[in-house]
Amino acid sequence: MTRIVRLCRADIHGVVDQMENKGLILKQYLRDMERELDQNESMLKKILLSRDQAKKEYDIYYNETENVEQDLKMALEKDKDNIARQLIKKLKPLSRYLKEIGCYIETLDKEIVRHEECLKERRLQHERLRLRSLEYGRGLVRSKWEKSINSTIPREISVETSDAEIEMELLKRKEAIKGGEQR
Question: What is the pTM for the complete model shown?
Answer without folding.
Answer: 0.59
